[in-house]
Every structure is written in structure tokens, then in C-alpha cells.
Amino acid sequence: MSLSTPRSLSLPLTLARFSSSSPSPDFSHLPGARTPKRSSSSPRNLRIPSPDAARVALNHCVDLVKKHDKASYLATLLMPPKAQPHVFALLAANVEIALTRDKVSSVSTTAMYRLKFWRDTFSAIYKGEGLVPQQPVATALVAFARSSSFDLLDQLAATRQRTIGDRPFNTMQEVYAYGRDSTGALIRLQTQALRHAAGGDEKTTSDEAIDRLAEAHAALTLVRSAGPFTLRRVVLLPEEILVGEGITPNNVVSGKNPEKLQAAVKRLVEMGSSRLDSSRLLRASVPRGERAALWATAAQCEHVVKSAAKAKYDIRSQLLQRPRALMAWRLLGWRMSGGY
After folding, report:
1. What residue ranges define each of the domains in the chain, with the CATH number in brackets?
2. How far is CA 100 from CA 57, 97, 176, in A?
3. pLDDT in tens, 288-320
């Protein structure tokens, strides 16, 4: 699929092409796919990859995001072509960080070392501290994401480090803070990439709109992941919510008091839905050209809210694990309407 579809192309044909089973980006003529020249401010030990190495690295990032974060993959295909390589590099870095738990046999020391690897990698790329590893996502960051914020990337990894060990959240405020520091950081990185591609420099997107959406995502992700985690006898649902309904983590794992658990889950969903609505009320504070950074997160939140209601707030229902049907159409609708 080519991303340079003429504006005159009919809408039905555009939708049909985009919603095909395996759409893929075409980077053959993208300005953003050119390897940047070394500037006088570049770290001395930063080796700029060759165009071929950059393209291989970018293709790896695209495949990684497509496999593990389909909503973000589809949303990025609808972003301005010049921004896409930058955004795919950022999303791939986030996937590598998020998958740490699944890639190691334990969630303690080994996971900490893997996350430290990424923090060191970001320091090498953006601060010139150490050598950049020969790793495709790192190569893509060097080639396409040189203008990204080190602080936000480091925050992504640092937030994961703080939550290693399957420890449950105590309060909703902890859940919201986690969302702001993880999902919020990723959204901000994407808005920066979109702004940079458009030739802008100054920050323009409202922090509050991003924060409310990130908080919604954190709460609703807990709902969607609760069922699979109980199979490992892990409960991350906030103690504040469970106690409020008179149940314990053991009740969640054993399945006892299902009505009370469903009430707790419904409460959590309502809190996440309220945060999503609050973010949308602030839509005007997000420039239209940067709203694409919020599409994937909003679509995921919306899907969990609807799926949980259909499942009657049963965390073990397979409805919560099914991907959203017609995701591509929803994203296209937002691109045309300027919503999220």
C-alpha cells in the first residue's frame, strides 16, 4: 500500500485499501527515511548508520510494532509520511521495553538488567554517554529519532523498572501516575515527532489532555489484563478498589464472590471511561495535526470500555481479549473528523 494516496481517490477505495488484512507502509520516497547528517552537536561516539542499515532497522521496527501493537501500527500508517519513520522507531522502543516481562524467565534481576540496557542505550544516543549497541531499534532511533526527548524515553524504561515484581497498585492515584509516566510519555514523544515533521519546534499540545487519556489507558489496561494475570496467580487490581467492594486478591484468583469482583471491575471501568471523556472534552487544546498521537490509545480505551460491558465485567471473559473489529475504520474516521 502506498501512503501517498491522491486526495481525489474515492473514500470507499481508500478505506478498502487501508483495512486490508496486511497493510504495510511504503518508505521508498519518504524524506524521513534519509539518514541524517552528523551535526556539530552530535556525540563524538555516535556512528550514523548507512542508508541500507537504516532501512533494515526501520523495517524491523515496523514488523515489531505490527506484531505487538496493532492499533499503533494502523494509526501510524495514517500519520504524515514524513513523521512515520520517527514514530515507528519510538513505538518499537516502547514495545521492547514493554515486552521485558515476557522475554525473560524471571521478573526480577534479569528484567532489571534488560531495562538498564535500554536506559544506557538512550544515554548513548541522546547524551553521548557510552557506545550505541548494534541493535536494530537503537539503529532506528539514531537514524530517524534524533530529535526525540531523552528524558521521556528514559522515563518509559524507568517507570517499568519501578513496577518490576508483579506488585499490585495500592490506590487509583498510583495507577494514574503510572499511566502518566508510561503511556503519557509515549504520547508526548509522538506529538514531538509530528511537530518536528511539520516544521514546528515549540510545545503546543495540552498536558492535561494527554494525562487524562494516559490515566484512562492505565486503568482500562488493568481490566483487560486481569484475567490472564489470574492464571499466574497475579493480581494487579488496585487494593483500594477491591477493599471498597469487600474482596481480597485471593478472591480474585479463586473466583469466589464473582458478583463483588464484577462490581469492582465495573467501578474501575467507569473510572477509566470518565478519564477518557475528560480528555476528549479537552480536544481543542490538542492541535489537529498532533491528535494522531492520541488515536491508538483512545481506540484501545474505547474498546475495553465496550468489551467489558458486553462481558458483564467478567475478567475471565474472552470478549476482553479479542481485538477490536474495524479498528482501521475507526481511526480513519478520526483522521477525517479531527477527533480521537
Report:
1. 31-38+47-165 (no CATH), 166-340 (1.10.600.10)
2. 20, 6, 21
3. 999 999 999 999 999 999 999 999 999 999 999
